[in-house]
From TrEMBL:
This is Putative signal transduction protein. InterPro entries: HDOD, RNase_Y/CdgJ. It comes from Sulfurimonas autotrophica (strain ATCC BAA-671 / DSM 16294 / JCM 11897 / OK10). It holds the Pfam family HDOD. Residues 12-209 form the HDOD domain. PROSITE patterns: HDOD.
Length: 273
């Protein structure tokens, strides 16, 4: 890993007190929705982002969500935590995704779509594993923020953007410029912030699942399939979907289950446009 990226990770500010409190409440088996809502209500930025997500067509709640408790009740504690974490991480890292040819808003949207796809798909495969994978899918592209920043600092953003916009293998483009993929950078970021080993490892191998330890291989493969279907440069394009379905078939998944979930997402995207 480039020394400049290592230094960027080491200099990251700590997570906010609100996020620490959210993680504490989430880990407390006796805590409930009301406890989580109370913590969130103290942070206006997280409240605004949570309500924005709750009213997005992506989740299809079908009615206006006006308060935190209502949003937390509908999302559940796992999804609420993921949305809060995702927003806070992006704020901390000062997102500029110009080298990838997308806006920070589009980056956030694709991250949410990856998480939604894995939740809906994996709920049909293994509900317990779906809960673990949701947060990882929501945050797995975080490393792209630091890679984009490094590329800009090295004045390589124009050439990087030219390659990234038309590539069907963003990990390969990243490797050629910064010697690592975004999955590896993301893993280092969350290790720096003290996340558990399982979470860090499933993301670390998401760009190369075949190298993952046996106990992590399924998680890393699932994350890889989702980011293949929804790459930040061409989410849900016909080519991306075909690549993702092929990866799923090669990994032994029921291709039809994934195709059904993708079709549902395509319908939701069409309905919102």
């Amino acid at each position: 890993m480039k020394s400049s990226i290592i230094e960027s990770i080491k200099s990251l500010p700590p997570l906010s007190k609100t996020i620490i409190d959210i993680n504490r409440v989430y880990a407390d088996e006796e805590a409930g929705i009301g406890d989580l809502a109370k913590v969130i209500e103290g942070d206006p930025m997280i409240v605004a982002n949570l309500l924005k997500n709750a009213n997005s067509p992506l989740y299809g709640f079908g009615k206006e969500i006006r308060n935190v408790t209502q949003a937390v009740s509908l999302f559940g504690m796992s999804m609420t935590r993921s949305i809060a974490l995702g927003n806070s991480v992006r704020k901390l890292l000062n997102v500029d995704m110009q080298p990838y040819g997308i806006t920070s808003e589009k980056f956030a949207e694709v991250s949410a779509m990856q998480a939604t796809l894995i939740r809906k798909w994996y709920s049909k495969v293994d509900k317990q594993k779906a809960d673990k994978l949701y947060l990882a899918a929501f945050l797995q592209e975080t490393g792209k923020i630091l890679i984009a920043s490094d590329v800009i600092q090295e004045d390589e953003d124009v050439s990087f953007k030219s390659e990234a916009q038309h590539s069907n293998n963003l990990a390969q483009v990243e490797k050629s410029y910064v010697d690592v993929t975004s999955a590896e950078v993301t893993a280092e970021v969350f290790q720096h912030w003290g996340f558990d080993t399982e979470f860090v490892e499933m993301i670390h191998y998401a760009d190369n699942p075949s190298a993952a330890p046996d106990e992590m291989k399924e998680y890393s493969t699932a994350l890889n399939i989702v980011k293949t279907v929804l790459p930040v440069n061409a989410p849900l394009s016909e080519q991306a979907i075909n690549f993702g379905l092929r990866h799923a078939s090669d990994a032994g998944y029921d291709e039809n289950l994934l195709q059904e979930t993708i079709n549902d997402m395509l319908d939701a995207v069409k309905a919102s446009s």
